[in-house]
């Protein structure tokens, strides 16, 4: 195999997955890690676009994955066939290595919350700088033991938990999947010092609390939170209940970890200052640079940026390197800490007024009986868009639309008060904990009908 030829890696979290992930990168080819369970019927399309030279896969993924592998027509070796073959090979390192720093190391896929998932290509150089950033910012040490349970097919755990621990010489404690009942047992039994977190997990531990605090986990330094915004109220509630500090960060597949709080200088509600290898600016709709406290779109560049999108079979589209528009609306304080206020494409324009769904959702989460919430805009014949909010009650609690309307009227300007409140059992989210907007829009259409 040569540089930039692709090897697709299909499997759940395992030592085999980690071994093969780093093995392909060390050789110099391109590794394409995919989560077959999450991609489901879209797996066949993605394999067609990736056009891998080889597929390495785990038979335990089931019939749908097996059918997609067979239909691809690509040479494939299952893990149970591969590792006996590897065991028969010499233990010495492979002498052949291909490629250089500018060749593609990893081809990841975005989460596809509002559109089809797309491939994002990172060079060996970008991947290296990408995992150096969180290793530095979160002060990873050789003595640290980092717990990871998110799919290793995502960029975030690749950079923090795979590359970051390797960079720092830390120990990786790897779970196949998240378990509400086992997470604190894992932390205690494996002497974990840093536990990875996402808002969905933090909310779950609040809504179904466990009788344990940081005093029972003396080696735990902090838990991270990323992938989606964490409400200030929920962060404070978690830290009050469990006495475990939360260190927030933020990023995206195209730019890696863009920002993160230093563990010793956290600011509640902030994703922290830009990472060491990220150059960030905030610009207004007119393109002017925003000052401290002013909201604008986050623009990033730097050596850890992805180089291209895979937009079709073997078709790469360059990603701007001199200023990538993230779509995140943020503001910065006087010390450069970033605060996410919403997504540019999620903005609701009601009667000519821009309304950030995140502001409304934050107000909803301040209600004592609301466990989770989300807000979208829907077409309105008079005002252009109407505001629709979805809420889930906390366990043992009950909420009504009228009660939530009254709550919002006391906290929001009239133009920002939701026109419709829908109480649901759960807010639909994707596997990364991000709100699934298309599912919410479908819920609205069903209710409206």
Detailed description of the structure:
The protein has 449 residues and is α/β, with parallel strands linked by helices. The chain is 29% helix and 27% strand. The radius of gyration is 22 Å and the shape is globular. The relative contact order is 0.09.
- The CATH architecture designation of the domain at 123-295 and 320-342 is 3-Layer(aba) Sandwich
Assign the structural class, choosing from mainly alpha, mainly beta, alpha/beta, alpha+beta, or little secondary structure.
alpha/beta
The CATH superfamily label of the domain at 123-295 and 320-342 reads ANL, N-terminal domain
The main sheet orders its strands as 8-7-9-10-11-12
How many helices in DSSP terms? 13
CATH class of the domain at 123-295 and 320-342: Alpha Beta
**Rg from alpha-carbon coordinates:** 22 Å
Strand tally, please? 23
Q: Strand count, sense and closure of the main sheet?
A: 6 strands, mixed
- Strand content range: 25-35%
What CATH calls the topology of the domain at 123-295 and 320-342 is Rossmann fold
Give start-end ranges of low-pLDDT stretches. Answer: none
Average per-residue pLDDT, rounded, comes to 92
Oligomer: single chain
- Tell me roughly what share of residues is in helical segments: 25-40%
Tell me the span between the first and last alpha carbons.
Answer: 55 Å
* Morphology: globular
